[in-house]
Each structure stands twice: as C-alpha cells, then as structure tokens.
Amino acid sequence: MAAKLSKAKRPKRRWIGFSFPSSIRSRNELEGHFRQLLPETIHFRLYDTHFFGSEVVTSFCELQSIKEDIGLAIVCVHLVDYDLVRHSLSEHTGEEILNSLSSSGKIRLVRQRLGLPKPRKK
C-alpha cells in the first residue's frame, strides 16, 4: 500500500456556500442540479445542506433580510476548478438558480459567514 500524501502534496480545495430554491427538497436533487450546471470532468462534494424551512435557513434569511424561499449548502471543489465553478454559478439563470454567497479555503469560514452550525460527529 502506498504512503499517504502529505498535506502539501494533496490537491488544494475551496468551499463555496450557496443558496438554492425551495423547490429542491432532497440532497440527491441538489446534486443533480449541480451536475447539470458543471462539466462532467469537475469533481465536487456536497457538504452541509439546509433546506427551506429549517431553523438555520430561517435565521440566516432574517439576518440578511432575504425575502425569497431558499435553502443553503456548501460544496467543495478543487482549486483548479474553482474559477469555472464560480463562473458557472454566476451565469446560471432560470427557475432553478444556485447563487454563490461565500467562498474560502476553509470550510469553517464559510460556515461562519452563512451562520451554519458545525455538524455533530456521529
């Protein structure tokens, strides 16, 4: 078995916090919309997902004075794909809009900016 890559040699990542419409009601549905938005070659991983109506989303909308019915999520992408993903999010129009709200090299900072709690360990 090969030795584990050091932290410096692993691919760099970026976390993007985004909102999605309330019509999306499952994690699989959200991943499907994200896949349609991006080329097949881009690898992503969906992390935190909070759907419309949850306490977290309600408090975020009140703090930010947002009137739309939205959900919140965080996705992780490789740094080399980051610009393409952000560009795809900004150009995507229509009924099923995914809006980028925050991004960082640290998931902790994206959670803090969106007011999302750190998930409990199982």
- Output the CATH topology: Alpha-Beta Plaits
Specify the CATH architecture. 2-Layer Sandwich
State the helical fraction: 25-40%
Q: Which geometry do the CA atoms define?
A: globular
- Series of H and E elements: EHEHEHEH
How would you write the strand order of the largest sheet?
2-3-1-4
Provide the residue-averaged pLDDT.
Answer: 86
| First-to-last CA distance | 28 Å
Number of strands: 4
The helix-and-strand class reads alpha+beta
Quick summary:
Helix content is 34%, strand content 25%. With 122 residues, it is an alpha+beta fold. It has one domain: Ribonuclease P, Pop5 subunit (Alpha-Beta Plaits).
Descriptive terms for the model:
alpha+beta, 25% strand, Alpha-Beta Plaits, 4 strands, 4 helices, 122 residues, four-stranded antiparallel sheet, 34% helix
Question: Can you walk through the features of this model?
Answer:
The protein is of the alpha+beta class and 122 residues long. It has one domain: Ribonuclease P, Pop5 subunit (Alpha-Beta Plaits, 2-Layer Sandwich), CATH 3.30.70. It is built from four helices and four strands; from the N terminus they run βαβαβαβα. The protein has a four-stranded antiparallel sheet, sandwiched between helices. It is globular, with a radius of gyration of 15 Å. The mean pLDDT is 86.
